[in-house]
Automatic annotation (TrEMBL):
The keyword Cytoplasm applies. This is Phosphate regulon transcriptional regulatory protein PhoB. The modification 4-aspartylphosphate is found at residue 53. Keywords: Activator, Cytoplasm, DNA-binding, Phosphate transport, Phosphoprotein, Transcription, Transcription regulation, Transport, Two-component regulatory system. It holds the Pfam family Response_reg. It comes from Pseudidiomarina atlantica.
Length: 228
């Protein structure tokens, strides 16, 4: 499944151009032309990134970014602000409410793609390109697909990142704090128990062929991904 990019832009020509560029680069483009439609489109499975215009009918991009970053379910979705405003203080405002980057119109598709790749690398530090496989459980970072003995496995973006981290760091025990730092990032405030919730979701997602046993609880310490 390709990464889903939500394009929130009220100017149709720009929105259509961005959708075309996204699809040309293998992403799934979803469009919204105002604040309310954008909110309606931000549902599970959540977008992997949001390209967010500063000025929108019904509310500003700043308001939307602030709302998303204050919600536990959407706070990890990376946001790149798109705007004609070039003033330094406006850039700072965008970053202060949680945007991951800022690009000023007009911009080239090449520059946008470079910015997107940079943000994806920052928010997914484990994003290596090689497919990973352990005991028939296969994760492909490029297609963002997980299979178990060739059967498709559906999971949310956080569970995907958690599984990716585990599969690239097998046989080691990680505390909840270490998992938060490596999977959620050091600049995000999330309670330790949130890890337990996502561990349960991950186990449920991969239980069909018994792969849930690979995610092991080490009592009093944390979690380990192991085939032993």
């Amino acid at each position: 499944m390709s990464r889903k990019i939500l394009i929130v832009e009220d100017e149709a020509p720009i929105r259509e151009m961005l959708s075309f560029v996204m699809e040309q680069h293998g992403y799934q483009a979803v469009e919204a032309n105002d604040y309310q439609v954008a909110l309606e489109k931000i549902v599970e499975p959540f977008p992997d990134m949001i390209l967010l215009d500063w000025m929108l009918p019904g509310g500003s991009g700043i308001q939307l970014a602030k709302k998303l970053k204050s919600d536990d379910f959407t706070r990890n979705i990376p946001i790149i602000m798109l705007t004609a405003r070039g003033e330094e203080e406006d850039k700072v405002r965008g970053l202060e409410v949680g945007a991951d980057d800022y690009i000023t119109k007009p911009f080239s598709p090449k520059e946008l793609m470079a910015r997107m790749r940079a943000v994806f690398r920052r928010v997914s530090p484990t994003a290596l390109d090689e497919p990973l496989e352990i005991e028939g459980l296969k994760l492909d970072p490029i297609s963002h697909r997980v299979t178990a003995y060739n059967d498709r496995v559906d999971m949310g973006p956080t569970e995907f990142k958690l599984l990716h981290f585990f599969m690239t760091h097998p046989e080691r025990v990680y505390s909840r704090e270490q998992l938060l730092d490596n999977v959620w990032g050091t600049n995000v405030y999330v309670e330790d128990r949130t890890v337990d919730v996502h561990i349960r979701r991950l186990r449920k997602a991969i239980e069909m062929h018994g792969h849930d046993r690979l995610v092991q609880t080490v009592r009093g310490v944390g979690y380990r991904f192991s085939s032993r």
